[in-house]
Amino acid sequence: MTTTVRLLVGGPTTSWPTNLAQLPGPWVGADRGALRLVKLGIQPTIAVGDFDSIDAGELATVKQALTGTVVVKPDQDQTDTQLAVKTIFNRLQPDELVIYGATGGRLDHLLANLWLVLDPKFRDWAPKIKLVDLQNTVQFFLPGDYTLKKEANKKYLAFVPMLPTHLTLRDAKYQLHEAYNDYPISWASNEFVGTTSHFSFDQGVVAVIQSCDAKK
After folding, report:
1. 3-26 pLDDT per residue, tens
2. With pLDDT > 70 as the criterion, what percentage of the chain qualifies?
3. Does 171 score more than 80 pLDDT?
4. C-alpha 123: how far from chain center
5. Which residues is 196 bridged to in the sheet?
6. In what order do the strands lie in the sheet with 165-169?
7. Please, are residues 204 and 184 in contact by the beta-carbon 8 Å criterion?
8. What are the respective helix, strand and coil percentages of the chain, to the nearest 5?
9. Which of 20, 46, 110, 136 is buried most deeply by CB count within 10 Å?
10. For 114-144, how does the pLDDT look when each residue is reduced to its tens digit (9 = 90+)?
11. How far is CA 27 from CA 5, 9, 63, 85, 89, in A?
């Protein structure tokens, strides 16, 4: 049985999936994400951060609702999200970590969240991490040969080599054969031709994004 932990960080609520409040836990909140969980009626297992975005009364509300512990960030050398991810894998050891609130809003936060898996301290956990919002699912892969399943509500497929690699896309709408770039690139606006897509690469880290257009 796959163990999934969900982490809510501080990005805009407008980027959340519409069913976020109904998703099963355990849940962890990073900084303001912990307060938002409590306001949704969700009891976080762990709250993590320096809590500089909430006041003392709000922090007391979070602590009262907690089923576990508060982990206070000791310094500014790591982000709240980094500390939360490290805490989750060290304490809860999930098979999968799904992160919400990591996109939208400030670009520096978005880049920090996307690049987290490139840090050697986190890279082994990369295949277990997903970033999910209203329009996108981002998965991270280490070198190998993979079969990707299409999400029912997603139209587009993008492959993003984050480090130099040779990338092969065998049965997507637009195919590649050992395509090499020595800089990050987004092979964007690709599509499935069925319910699965096969790809492989030989080094580095590749992010795969399934996405859909925003509803007007």
Report:
1. 999 999 989 999 999 999 999 989
2. 99
3. yes
4. 13
5. 149
6. 144-149, 196-201, 165-169, 176-181
7. no
8. 25, 35, 40
9. 46
10. 999 999 999 999 999 999 999 999 999 999 9
11. 6, 11, 14, 12, 13
Task: For the full predicted model, state whether its pTM sits above 0.90.
Answer: yes
* Residue 180 DSSP label: E
Measured in whole angstroms, the distance separating CA 117 from the mean position of its chain's CA atoms is 10
Residue linked to tokens 């998703």: 23
Burial 101-121 (b: 16+ CB within 10 A, else e): bbbbeeeebeebbbebbeeee
- Residue position matching structure tokens 């306001």: 39
Q: What is the pLDDT of residues 186-208, one digit of tens each?
A: 999 999 999 999 999 999 999 99
Residue of 9, 15, 142 whose CA lies nearest to 83: 9
> Which two tokens mark 147?
């079969």
Q: Residue 204 corresponds to which amino acid?
A: G
Count how many residues are written for the chain: 216
